[in-house]
Amino acid sequence: MTKKVEPKGDVNLRAFEDKQYNCLVTNDLNNLAGLKQFPESEKISKKWFVLRDLKRSNANMPAYKQLDALNIEIFTPMTERIVLRKGRKIKEKVPFIQDLLFAYSSKETLDPIIEKISTLQYRFVKGLQHFPMVVSERDMDRFIHAVNTDNKPRFYAPEEITSAMCGRRVRIVGGALDNYDGFLQTTRGSKVKRLLIELPGLMIAGIELTDCDYIVLT
After folding, report:
1. Phi/psi of residue 210, each to 5°?
2. pLDDT digit string, tens, across residues 79-109
């Protein structure tokens, strides 16, 4: 079932999917993975784990579909690209970063799944080989909500952002991004205002500002 979330107060996104959006946050694509469905019983230790999918970009069953079939809530920003399917070039939404996805679950649930899917791995904190990376719920929900306010968000890896791309630091008042803060994106020759919103250390999204009341310098 499609579920839209209004930007009031704390944003809490669970089981969230719509084909008009530019990321996938869902656990509704059942029976795609060819694996036994894993019962979701624990509530306490769920976190947003950062994972790596080692499959080819044109794989029929990428990890996000396999996890979804096991009732694991996942998030991966999507972008439209030309892909080759059965000898034909078609436009298709694919993950922005092929080997990066996020799973909202417990480590106790994910461990046996990752052990079984040889192309799926945890991303580990640099310098701590046995400490999986996690993202706070606040940061993840904030990023997901922002991405879904823009029909065509622009995604960047952290190393792609240069000082020339970052304008003044601002806070947004009103609209879908009310109370968001970040740097205005500077694009030569463009009148479109975009806010750079970071998922710390992992990716950045440039979100168009269309319905805010004020942009306040901070």
Report:
1. -120, -25
2. 888 877 788 888 888 888 889 999 999 999 9
pTM of the model: 0.75
Q: Are 76 and 100 in contact (CB under 8 A)?
A: yes
Q: Say yes or no to pLDDT of 58 above 50.
A: yes
User: Under a CB-based contact definition with an 8 Å cutoff, are residues 81 and 91 in contact?
Assistant: yes
Enumerate domains of the chain plus CATH numbers: 23-145 (3.30.70), 152-217 (no CATH)
Q: What is the pLDDT of residues 132-175, one digit of tens each?
A: 999 999 999 999 999 999 988 999 999 999 999 999 999 999 99
